[in-house]
Amino acid sequence: MDRLIYTAYSGLTGSMVTQAVIASNMANAQTIGFRAELLNADPMTLKGPSIEARAMTRGEVRGASMKQGAVIETGNPLDVALTGRSMLAVQGADGEEAYTRRGDLAVDASGVLTNGDGRPVIGDAGPVTVPPGARISIAPDGRVLAAAPENPDQPPQEVGRLKLVSTAGSRIEKGLDGLFRVPGGGALPADEEAKLQPGSLEQSNVEPTRVLVEMVEAQRLFDMRTKLISTAKELDEGGTGLMRLT
Q: pTM of the full predicted structure?
């Protein structure tokens, strides 16, 4: 098969991956703490003793932008905004530790502290649980404080501490569930210096205007590559002998 077909087909495949990434970013432009996905496209080359020809282009999500999103005040004592390179440890669907920037927390029916995705928030000794009916607040250092409604004059008591980690100098990968994990398993150590901003939420760091521009560019590139295949087919059907599709 001629190299023109390889180039056009691999380009179309890369365009489809690009559009999927763009669609995901656009769909999560309003998701709390979402990190915009980044695409990496690498040309793959066929090499041998007597041949070196360009073949497929491999496109894949290589990570996410860790740029700080806008922080807004909500006044909700269970909302927390993470700053810098810090992330919040949560329990993934597989039971393993994962990390997120989503800080819209709530207490479920069983008393477990969860984030907006419904993932249990991890503390010093596993998922953080709070006493039923207690008024919950979170300190800037991640301490979870509970106050008994029947004793308003009694100071709140610490019932746990959110595990905050720093990703500076550590390699993490973003999964399809939107959570970050350590490649190959494992967990990051808690960062005792990490701070958060109670009563606030960090918004998605997706820039809708930029994503719209990327969407238009990706669609135009897809159309160009489609026309390239049509041109190749016309040349072959014309019997020019310039290429062979079989």
A: 0.75
